[in-house]
User: What shape does this take?
Amino acid sequence: MKSSVNAILLCGGKGERSGSKINKVLCYFGAKTALEYFLDAFSPLCDNIVVVSAERDIEQIREISAPYGAQTVLGGDTRTQSVRSGLNAIKQCDVVLIHDAARPFVDQRTIKECIKSAQEFGSGIAAVKAVDSLKKVNDCVITDEIPRDDVYCIQTPQAFSFDKIKAAYLNVSGTFTDDSAVYMAAGGQPRIVIGSIDNKKITTPEDLISTPPCQRIGAGMDFHVFVKERKLIIGGVEIPYELGLTGNSDADVLAHAIMDALLSAIDMPDIGVLFPCTDEYKDANSIELLKTVVALVNAANRKIISVSATIMAQAPKMKDYIPLMRKRLSSAMGISENSINVSATTTEGLGAIGEGKGIAAGAVCLLQ
Ligand code: CTP
Ligand code: MG
Assistant: This one.
C-alpha cells in the first residue's frame, strides 16, 4: 500500500530579523510569494498539507494556501509550539515533513530524498556539509578549532515517521530550533540526507534582496544612421570622425541601448515612448536621459548590479575611447566602472553596418 505523506509548513514566526514590514513568508520573490514557492514544491508530493500561521497573517495565508487544498492552523509563541499545533492538526499519516517557510527555494529532489529516508529509516533530515573553516571564538578571539570533516549544516525539510515524531513532541519539554533535536531528545537517531545549498534560509534584509528570483535582466538595442555635419557621440564621449549619427537627440546609440535594457528590466516602456521625437528632446544629451532612467530604476526599488554592452561599427575604431565611455556611463548610473563593460566589433563588412551606413549597439543589464 502507498504510504501517506503529510507536510507541516511553518509560517508562524514574525520575520522580525528580516526588517520587512510584512512577514517574510508573504514577501514576493519575483512573481510569487515565498509561501507559493514551497506550496508549489510540496503539494504534488504530499497527500495533505498543514500551514501553520501567526494570528496576524492567518487570513492572508489561508487565502493563498486554500487553492492548494492546504489547511491553515494557528501556531504558537515558539517554533516548537507551532510544530505541535501542526502535528495536532494531522489525524494520521505514515510520513510527516516539517519545513520552515523561511526556506522558500527548496527543491523536489530534496523533499523526495527526505521522504524516502523517513520511509526506510524513520527520519530524513536535509543537511549540507560544512565548507567554511569552523572555530570557537570568545570576545573576538579564536580559542579553538572545530574539525569540520563530520560537521553538517542542518536545513529543513525534515521528514519523520509520523508516530515517532508525534510521540517525541509529546514527551519532550523545552524549546528546540529544529525537529531533529526533538527526535534525538526523545531517544531517536535522526538520519541526514544531502540537501542543497540553494535551499537557503531567509533571515536578514540582505537575504530578502539577494535571492535569485529577485534579480532581473534587461536587454536593449539601438541603431542610428551616419550623416554629415553631426557630432559622433557614443557612450557620452565625442569621437573625432568625419560623420556623426542622426537622431532627434544626440543619437548616442550606446547610451540608448543601455537605457532600453534598464527600462525593460523594470518593465517600463522603452525610450521611444519615454523620450519621444519632440522638440523637448531635440539634441538632448543622452547621458542626462540615462540619469532620468536610473532614477526610475531606483524608484522601482531596483539596484543596478552590472551592465554589459557592445558597439557594432565598421569605423571608426572605438578601442581608445572605451575607458572614457565606461567612466561617463558608470558615473551617470552611480555604479563602479568595473560594473559596466563595453566591447566593440565590426560586422566584417556585412550588412548596412558593415557598409558604414550607421552604428548599432546592444546592451544587457542585471538588476537586484
Ligand atoms: N516559526 C513558527 N512559529 C513561531 C516562530 C517561528 O512557525 N512561533 C517558523 C517561522 O515562520 C520560520 C521558521 O519557524 O519559517 C524558522 O524561524 P525563523 O527563521 O526564526 O523565522 P521568524 O521567527 O519568522 O523570524 P525572526 O526570528 O526574525 O522573527
Ligand atoms: Mg524566529
Remarks:
- The first helix runs from residue 34 to 42.
- The mean pLDDT is 94.
